[in-house]
Amino acid sequence: MLAYFVDNFDPFIFRLWDNVGPRWYGFAYVLAFVSAYFIVRLLSKRRYCDLPPEHVSDFITWTALFGVLLGGRIGYVLFYKPEMLREPLSILRVWEGGMASHGGMIGILALSFYYARRHKLPWTNLGDALVVAAPIGLFFGRCANFINGELYGRATNVAWAVQFPKEVLEDSYVKDRAVTAAQTIDSSLVDPEQIIQAARHNAQLHDALRRILTPRHPSQLYEALFEGVVLFAILWFVRTRMRQPNGMLTGLFFIFYAIFRIICEYFREPDAPLIGVFTRGQFFSFFLITIGIAFVVAAKLRPTFPKHIGT
Questions:
Q1: 219-240 pLDDT, tens per residue?
Q2: In the list 46, 73, 164, 295, which could disulfide-bond 152, CB 3.0-4.6 Å?
Q3: Of all residues in the chain, what percent are helix, strand and coil, respectively (each to 5)?
Q4: pTM (2 d.p.)
Q5: Residue 214 DSSP class
């Protein structure tokens, strides 16, 4: 039997006390926004983006707060956890995780449209700059999902499979087995959350979980690779090596992101009820493909170009 890696990282970078301290999930967003700033500023300096370099920080700040965070959180509540509407204050606890990439994209579209109209800039040009930077943020976000051991993959026996202790919280059979095993090691361990946390420092408990947990695809890393690294490489190449009109990159982003998401979802354990034969992520991605095609068609029918490229 293979000794699979057990993904039981502490979600905190460090703890000030108890459950207070900076988390990897929040740090991923900081890295995403910082990288977006530098990428959009670089595109602006090279005149691929019509936004003046001195306005990039203002634009990224608005995009981060009202596009990504607000749009992502509202999307998560509406698409995945509508029951949270019964407890409105829970919607504000973003540090606990729970963001929808589809919601964030809709939020970014709305924010960039408003910002472009207000500052008299081509909306599609502004969007093209943002989508080049977006995959880097997606990469950091998926890496944070892996560290948190959430949104894990389907059961598998591949050599690189990973075991995720959070399965104890979501599978009653695994939970019962974990509690029984923990009791033989420490009788005070009766809560699944306590067991997961104790296993980070208790080698005996760690080994007990290894014998119980299901080996799974590290689907977060698959998504980090394709939605992050590969998608960024495609968009960067098209932006800097090909003469494409405003809106083309936005369309390609939606199309390729949706394709990669649909494929990766086949390796990911569904985190919400299916819609027909599709997961929520796959179902919403079909709409993104339609939106992407609309951007591509519009860019070809009425082409305008960034300053660097000219007409």
A1: 999 999 999 999 999 999 999 9
A2: 164
A3: 65, 5, 30
A4: 0.89
A5: P
